[in-house]
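Follow-up to my post from last week.
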Amino acid sequence: MKFKPTTLLTKIKKPAYLEKMLLALLNIIPEYYFIQWSMGINDQYIKLGIVALAIVWLYGILSKNIYYIGFTYVTTSIILVAYNHDIGAIFTMCLVSSIWFMFSITIVSYIFEKGHGFNRVFSIKGVLITMLLLALIYGAYLYTAYYIANLAYNAYMYIISITPRIFQGFYEAFITTRIGSIILLLYFVFIVYYVLNDYITLLISDTVALNKKFAINRIISTLRNEAKNIYIGKDSFQKLFVRSFFFIIMFYLYGMTYPLYRNFYNFIHQLITYLSLPEYSVILAWLGLLNIVSYIVYKIIYSRIISVVKPSISRERNELIKTLQPSVWRPFYVFLSVLVFYVTIIAVTSPSELSSIIMRSLGLSKNINVIYQNKFLRLLTNMFIDYSYYLTQWVQTYILYIDEAYRILTGLVKDMIEFIWG
Amino acid sequence: MINDEHIQDVSATPNVVIIILILSLLAGIDIVLNKTITIHTLIIMSIGFSLILATRILVELSSRQIYRLRIKRKILDPAIENEPIRIKITIENKANIPLLKATLNDIYPGIFKKIKGYSRITTFILPGEKIEFIYMVKPVIGIHEFKGIEVIVSDPLNLFNYKTIINPERRVIMVKPRPLSMPKKLPLIYTQRGLGTGKARIKGIGQEFWDLREYNPGDDYRFIDWKSYARLRKLYVKEFEREANLSIIFIINATMESMRGILGETPLEYMVRLVAGLSNVLIKRGDWVGVVIRSDKVLRSGYGRGISHFYRIINTLSMIKWGKYQPVQTLEETILRETILLPRRTKTLFFILTSSLEPSEIDEIVRAYHKLLIHNHLMYIVYLVPELFEKKALKGLDAGIYSALIFDKLEKTIDINKLLSKRGIKTVSVGPDDIYTSVYGLIEKYRAVIT
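User reply:
Got it. Predicted complex:
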């Protein structure tokens, strides 16, 4: 057997090694700047850390792994920002160098991942078309982003001006922090993107760039798919509509169940003090429970909500069904039987007062201060009067509680947003 | 054509995650330090996101154009085993959309060995451009399929990619075997006996002159020797020596066991090479040869003589399929079916080349042998010991250790030989070095017997 010594030189001459060396050379300048800037910091440990990060960077280059490179750049940037460097400049540098690394991998692969006997027949027309296309697409997108940002800003200013007090509280809490506005903006951008992606891009790409027959087929198939999606209820707008109901349900369930929570407040308070729990824990547990309950409610009424936006196709009716008795009358019969039962009891217990009761209920006799001789009737009347008296009180307290509930929620959201985003 | 099963959506790579993370970190740190987001950060973020989205659209557009690529695969060299073949791929972008970064990977048969060049390249293909590249592989005997060209389209930053497989027209390659050449001194052993190469010492219709005899009524006029008549005034008839044409059938048992071992040295490849080599020699001598391969389907070359039949045999041998499969017929069925299909009513030699002799298979062979005897045919079993073929690839100390390890197995083969010879079946156990000599010896010995 022959023994071939592998020297460093023979290794370097291999394409794999050359590739990595070229990649390192292309990326050394941004890393050099990062190191140079961080060497100005008068802290030995930080300097050691930077050296360790440079080793990580080298490993990232050798393994062509974006995660290691990204980690190095981001960590170095954070350290530099912590030592009073300009945030914008440093992070722009970080972003640009990461993008440059991605691009340099492509350059290297263009150079080295070529076949034996590689040959290319250039076309100037192709270069021109490419440049035009790139300019068009990227230009359109930058313009769209700018336009949508303005649109979103105007839209939420308008929403603030017209919404009632409770909602306004939420919007205020959300929009006073800039991050909220960015989230809203991104939300709009993504909606536009999905619309573009799902409906418009496919049509443009297929009608402009392809032959007519294919384009027509594509349009027909897209329309068919869309129709099918709408019929099933899987269209993105339908999905959005249905899912928004989940939050509406949760919002209302919160208000409805708060009085319940308020009534058991003393008991819960005692329980908290006994278990020495923070007060927030109960609220959070309650919100979690609410989430589950509202999800269950959402799932129960899902078919009803989706039926609103889902087209229903009427089928031919079976003539036999028409002749069958509809079941609408069943509650009426129940109600009637209860009434008959009630009248019978009164008639049995005090037949003398039955006529006056019927006259009063029909509004023919206006005598109010009647004291019934029958014990059963007296009890029933008193109970009804008490119920009417307390009902108004209950409704009042309920409304008060609901107001309190939403006030608390608004405060909580405000606190949370301020805590997270400042 | 694009395979429907491989169609996927455009998917994001980790690079997108990294960019979004850096952007959100920028915003987060800005808010923490400045209590609000600055215009500078806002602009960078909006540019970053719009670039990501535009890139997504670009990749989406190019992914829809892949099927308009005109891809051709050309095999530049004849496919013979161990002879490197050059495969040329040509790609032409017929669409108006550029592929800014396209990785093209020709998925050649996994059993082949790549020698030179790359089967996978990364490049950009602008509208109307044409690209070609070549790579070299070392093929293996048999029929092989190219699984298509994998195309991965992405953008220069590799933010999104799209993968699909395209099948160019030519997909199947049939690699022909290289016939085993006859050892130099081998013909001498069988010709020094004075038998000639193909003489049978039996009179009949042939080329070689045998004798003259007096004419009897009813003899063919063609054979009257008019020169003798002119000399002696008596009719004489020429008699010729009958040619000793054998009829031989090789049955290759292409089971999983025969594909075991180191590629290039497997028993199956040796079987194919041996059959190719022997049939070359035999056909030149005017013998009748047929080849049957028992694999996932039964491959038959037919039964014949002449150089065109030799090419038929080679083509049949190059249709052997590698891989896991269950043979469609039992060995017994294959042998008996071949007996029925014989067009020539002569004594035929059946050579069964196998590298697996399980007890059930031995029973089958014995049963088939008894049926062959009724029809006056002969059967030989050539047992290619798989361990010996594995050993051939080893050298030095490794070979020594391996031969010690396989000693038990080799003893077992002797037992099998004894068992079969008890039943009256001639068996030879061979390795890679003596395979030709042994089988050729069997044929020549038989030829000597019939004289």
